[in-house]
Amino acid sequence: MLEVKDLRAGFDGTEIIKGISLSVKAGEVHAIMGPNGSGKSTLAKVLVGHPSYEVMGGEVTFNGENLLEMDPEQRALKGLFMGFQYPVEIPGVNNAEFLRMAYNAKRVNEGKEEIDPLDFDDILVEKMEMLSMEKKYRERNLNEGFSGGEKKKNEILQMAILEPKLAVLDETDSGLDIDAMRVVADGVNRLRNENNALILITHYQRLLEYIKPDYVHVLSHGIIVKSGEKDLALELEARGYDWLAPTN
Amino acid sequence: MTTTLVDATDQAELAILNLHKKFMSESRPPEALLPLNEAALQRFELLKFPHRKHEMYTFVNTKELVSTVFSLPPETPVSKDFIKSHIFPECESSYLVIADGVFRDDLSDYSAIKSAINLVPIEEAVAQSEIKEYMADTIEKENDVFASINTAFLSRGTMIDVPRKQQVETPLQILHVSTGSTSGKVTSHPRILVRLGEMAELKMIVKYVGAQGNYFVNSVMDLLVGEQAGITYVQVQEDAMDAWHFSKTRVVQGQNSRVSAFNAFFGNQLTRHHFEAHLKDVGVELKLNSVSVLTDQEQVHNFVRIHHEAPHGTSAQVFKNIVSGKSRSSIDGTVIVNQGAQQTNSDQLINNLMLSDNAHADTKPNLMIFADDVKCTHGATVGQLDEDQLFYLKTRGLIEKVAKELLTKSFAESIIQTIEFPGVVEYLENNLLKKLEA
Questions:
Q1: Complex ipTM value
Q2: Measured between CA atoms, how close is A234 to chain B, in angstroms?
Q3: Torsion sign, CA atoms A93, A95, A96, A98
Q4: Residue from B291, B353, B395 whose CB has the most chain A CBs within 10 Å, to mutate
C-alpha cells in the first residue's frame, strides 16, 4: 500500500529525515517509535504533504501512485489520513458541518451523491457513540475549546467517518488519560480490517498495549535504526532509546 | 494649495448653511426644537468640516462628500412590499419605519409591543427637563461635526420610551429607509432616542436600507440606559452602493446597566460609524461587537470612544473585518478610563482578514488610563488565512477553494454567532457572507 524508498526530507533547508525506507501492506499496523527530535513527526507531515516541509530525495508511492506529487487534499481523497498531534481550532466552523463536508468531499470523489445533514447525523451519532463522545461536540465549533482528550477523540471521529485506507496517527496518545486512551484505542481497533493499514507514531510504548502493532520501527536522528516485531516495543520500554543511537 | 483647500471647505460649509435655510422654511421644524437646531448649527460652524488631518477623520476621506451639494429629500412613496422584505422574522408585528428620518405610522406595525413602549415625538420629549438637558448638553459637547449637522436638521425625531421595570420580550425593529433620488443627491438626518427606565429591558434590531441610491444618510441614535436596565441591539448597515452612510450611536449608561451592541456592515462607497459610550455610574457592562465584509471599492470606518467614568465598569469590544478587492476598513478606537474609574475591566480586539493585496485596513487601538487599579487590554491583527487551518482542512479532502471559502466565512461567522437574534444571524449568513462567494 505504502512504499517509502530512501526518503530524505526536512525543513528550512535542514535535512531531518536522512533516508528512510518503509513498506506498509494492507492489514498491517506499523509503530514508529523514537525519542524527541528523531524525525517521527516530520515523517508524518511529509507523508500528508505539509507545505512547510521539503522533500530532498527518495520516493513514496501510495497504492502504486507517486504520493509526493499530490496535493494534501488529493492524498486525503486517495485514502490517506493523518491524526494530528496538535489539531488546530477553527472558530466559526461547526464541527458536524465540517465533518459532513469532509464526508461529502470523499463521496463526490468516489462518484457518489452528497448526503444531506439528517442522514449524515445518523452516521455521526453512531460513530460518536463508539468513541463515547458527548453529542454536544456536534454543535461546537471545530476543536474550539475542546480539551486535549476531546481533540484527539475528534481526530479519531474524523478517521471513523472518512474510513481511510491508511491512517497515520501522530502521537495520538499524548494528552490522553488512561480511560480516554482505552476508548480511543478501542475505536481505532474497531476500524481496522484487512484492507486498511495504520502507522502509529508514538514516543511511549503504552498505546501499543492497546493497539497491537505488527512491526515496530525505531527512528533516531532521521533514520530507522532498528525494525522488529512487537516485542521490540517492550525492549525499548525497558532499555530506553540510547542503546540504539546511530554510531557515527 | 492650502488656500484652495480652505476655500473648498468654506464653500462646503456655505452649502450646508444654505441647505439649512431651506430646511427651516420647507421642513418647518416644530417650535420646541428651534433652539436646538440653532445651537447645533452654531456648533457646526465652530467645528467646521474635517480637514484631512482631523483626529476624528484620519482614515476617512470626506472630500467628495462635503463637496457635494445636497437637497432635502422630496416625499417619496415607499411600498409595503419593500418594507416587508426588510423586516426580520422576529419583528413581524414590532417594527417602526423611519423614512428619510420621518417616523411613518402608516408603514409601521408595532402591535405586538404597543402596550410596552411609548413613542414620543422628539418635540414633545424635549418638554421633559431630563431630555431637554441631555440634548442641550450633547450639542455643547459634540465634537463630531456630522452629529452636529444631524441636530441642526432635527425635525421629526422619535423617542422610544421604555417605562421603569418594563421588560419588552419581543425585539423591536427600527427600519431606516432612505428613499434616495433619481436626480441629484439628497440628504436626511434621522434621529432616534431610546430611553430605558430603571430595570427596563429592550431588544432592538436597527437596519439601514435605501430604496434608491444618490443619498447621504446622516443618522444619530441616543441610548439612555437607566439603572439596572439592559438593552441588546444589532445594527445592520446595508445602504445603496452609491450612498454615503454616517451614523453615530451615543450611549449613556446608569448604574449596573447593561448594553450589548452589535454592528454589521455591508459597506458601500463610504460608511462611517461613530460609537460613543459613557459608563457614567458604577457596575456598568458594555459589549460592542462588529463585523464588516467588504469587496470591490467599499469602505467602512469605525470611530469608537468608550469613556469609563465610574468604578467597576466592564467594556469588551471585538471587531472582525474582511477586506478584499480594493476595499478599505478602519477602526479608530480609544478607551478612556477616568481617574475615579477604579476596577475597570476593558478589552478590545481588532482582527482584519486581508484577501487581496489592494485592500486596506487601518487599525488604531488606543487606551488612555487615568486610574491605577484597572485591567485593560487591546490588540489588533492584520493577516491572511491561517496556513495551519488551511492545511488541516485540506488533509480532510477539502480542495483549496472550498477550504479557503470555509475559513474566510468562519472568520466572520465566529462573531456573527454571538448575535442573539436567530433571524439576523441567518440573514447575515445568507447575505453578508454571500459576498465572499466568487
A1: 0.94
A2: 33
A3: positive
A4: B395
